[in-house]
Write a structure and sequence with these properties.
The complex is a heterodimer.
Chain A (H helix, E strand, L loop, with lengths): L1 E5 L5 H9 L7 E8 L8 E6 L3 H16 L4 E7 L1 E3 L4 E9 L2 H18 L2 E7 L2 E4 L4 H8 L4
Parallel strand pairs in A: 1-4
Antiparallel strand pairs in A: 2-6, 3-5, 3-7, 4-6, 7-8
Chain B lengths: L1 E4 L1 H7 L3 E3 L7 H11 L1 H6 L7 E4 L2 E3 L10 E5 L6
Parallel strand pairs in B: 1-5
Antiparallel strand pairs in B: 1-2, 3-4, 3-5
The chains are: A alpha+beta, B alpha+beta.
């Protein structure tokens, strides 16, 4: 179980290799990579976070996933600072013996991260900066895991 | 206690953190104290529906106690991922 908050980019292949190195009991690794969406006016995205609480929240998300699925290993990497459209922003890896647990755990960790990890996005465009509003759809996505 | 502000709340108040001496017992009481201090706090806390709070890095409601807490943070709903 590894969590990291960093300004630099990440390499999904290297992260996957690190996750599975030295073991042959893993049957599935699901990865999710989030990218900075540009589309029109956004020229830059600034990611702010709450150091300390962020790491605690990410560890909490992983431990919730471990309780719920057969999660053998996981990695969460989230970037902060200024990012350009098209750049990688978040990586979630979930490893399990079979694919369904890996798919579900990765999905769950992303849904939790969206609404429970203290990150905030600010978009910069021609009209200046604008803090991204939270989406109700993200809250709804989290609720489905309570059922 | 240390009070931290993030995102647009930080921008409206004009600083990322400050040491606050308070006798407030709850988050809501602390907010009321801050709001009467200066206009920028009143502006930042004008719409409490869009303010989230963590006490010692745990998310709590506005009526939560801050007695004995060392850190209270105010921020908008999270938008990571």
């Amino acid at each position: 179980m590894a969590i990291r908050v960093q300004t630099g980019d990440f390499d999904i292949s290297a992260e996957t290799a690190a996750l599975t190195r030295g073991r042959d009991d893993i049957g599935a690794v699901v990865s999710f990579t989030g990218l900075v969406r540009g589309g029109g006016d956004v020229s830059q995205m600034e990611l702010e976070h709450y150091p300390g609480m962020t790491e605690n929240a990410l560890r909490d998300i992983e431990s919730r996933a471990v309780k719920r699925w057969n999660l053998q290993a996981s990695t969460i990497v989230h970037r902060v600072g200024p990012l350009q459209p098209g750049e990688q922003i978040v990586l979630v890896l979930a490893a399990s013996p079979h694919r369904q647990d890996a798919f579900d755990a990765a999905n769950f960790m992303m849904d939790y991260l969206k609404t429970r990890a203290p990150f905030w996005k600010k978009e910069t465009g021609p009209a200046g900066g604008k803090w991204v509003d939270a989406r109700d759809a993200d809250d709804d996505a989290l609720l489905r895991w309570d059922a | 206690m240390q009070v931290l502000y993030f995102a647009w709340i930080r921008e409206r108040i004009g600083l990322p953190k400050e040491q606050v001496e308070t006798t407030a017992g709850t988050v809501a009481e602390l907010v009321e104290e801050l709001k009467v201090r200066e206009e920028r706090y009143a502006v930042a806390f004008a719409d409490l529906a869009s303010v989230r709070v963590a006490v010692d890095q745990q998310m709590v409601d506005l009526d939560a106690s801050i007695i004995g807490a060392s850190e209270v943070a105010f921020f908008p709903p999270m938008t990571g991922g």
